[in-house]
Design a protein that fits this description.
The chain is α/β, with parallel strands linked by helices. The protein has eleven helices and ten strands. Bound molecules: 1,4-dihydronicotinamide adenine dinucleotide.
């Protein structure tokens, strides 16, 4: 198998000025992609802005002989999304890859989540990914080629205390990915979602108890942890998903501590009730163990596919 390369490919990486996004941008550029390095350049909680972060990564890429252009807009507005896409078109003339990575973190117990926290997380993570991807998708559809990665989170897929607003936005991205992958497939546009884990400045959003628990979990790996918490351990999966080699679409992949694995939403075979009379709650209660059992399951490829699965199970 020849090495994955991105010759003549153009990538947009949002939030590429630091953390995970920076490593994605550097590796895509090192493998030949022209990269739009988008970053608002603010703090971990979404406050502030500056040009420094994006500029530094662009300099790094150019110093290594690669092609890059900076963009400083927030992904969190429609105008920002359009401007990011326009930066790619103005500088490089096409768009093959979008890595929706930009984001910030504001943790709070559920009862303390106010509109300011809720709106800021939904605007940047969920609406922001849509604002960038929508204009880029139009270009990809015309080209008949595209690769889109949505940075979701284990918090959204599996849950994590104090992150209800963040998790809502990140789980929302799974929904966007499920639908866009169905719409994009016939146009050669493949979409996948990522559940990354890496040490980053986002730790600053954790309260001391959370941070302690997190650190203890890392420590429990002992010498098996190695340096697997570094962003560079997530990057290969993103680079693969962004490549022409990748034929996966409509899937969620976890890259956590050097372990790479598909995550999925499945439906158990369950229990099928009578066909002509609705089951009573009492009868359902009697079958609840079978309903909740995940020993046999399917992964529906769409809403319609779930119907087919039910039909198959009825026999
Ligand atoms: P980070 O804070 O180091 O990087 C995020 C980048 O996005 C920063 O450079 C920031 O300036 C930029 N950014 C923030 N708001 C922006 C906006 N409105 N427009 C443009 N740029 C903006 O964090 P990290 O850890 O690298 O996170 C990257 C992505 O991965 C985020 O979406 C995060 O939610 C997600 N993620 C990270 C995990 C981790 O373990 N580090 C776990 C699960 C998800």
């Amino acid at each position: 198998m020849s090495a994955i390369d991105f010759k003549d490919r153009v990538a947009i990486v949002t939030g590429a000025g630091g953390g995970l996004g920076r490593t994605y941008a550097l590796e895509l550029a090192a493998r030949g992609a022209a990269v739009v390095v988008n970053d608002l350049g603010g703090r971990f909680d979404g406050s502030g802005s500056s040009h420094n972060m994006a500029d530094q990564v662009v300099e790094e890429i150019r110093a290594a002989g690669g092609k890059a252009a900076a963009n400083y807009d927030s992904v969190g507005t429609r105008a920002g999304g359009e401007s990011i896409v326009q930066t790619a078109l103005d500088n490089f003339g096409r768009i093959d890859i979008v890595i929706n990575n930009a984001g910030h973190l504001r943790n709070a117990p559920f009862e303390d989540i106010d509109d300011e926290i809720l709106d800021s997380l939904i605007d940047v993570h969920l609406k922001g990914a849509i604002y960038v991807t929508q204009p880029a998708y139009k270009v990809m559809k015309r080209q008949g080629y595209g690769r889109i990665v949505f940075a979701s989170s284990a918090a959204g897929a599996f849950g994590n205390p104090q992150q209800a607003a963040y998790a809502a936005a990140k789980a929302g991205l799974l929904g966007v990915m499920h639908v866009l992958s169905l719409e994009g497939k016939e146009h050669g546009v493949l979409c996948n979602a990522l559940l990354p884990v890496a040490n980053s400045r986002m730790e600053a959003a954790m309260d001391p108890t959370q941070l302690q628990a997190f650190t203890a979990q890392y420590a429990s790996f002992g010498d098996k942890l190695g340096t697997s918490y570094l962003p560079e351990f997530v990057t290969p999966l993103v680079v693969y998903l962004a490549s022409e080699t990748c034929t996966s679409t409509h899937a969620i992949y976890s890259a956590a501590l050097g372990r790479y694995a598909r995550a999925f939403i499945g439906v158990a075979d369950g229990w099928t009730g009578p066909r002509d009379t609705p089951v009573t709650a009492d009868e359902l209660a009697r079958h609840f163990q079978q309903i909740a059992d995940v020993g046999q399951f399917s992964i529906p490829e769409s809403l319609a596919d779930e119907f087919s699965i039910i039909q198959r199970n009825i026999g």
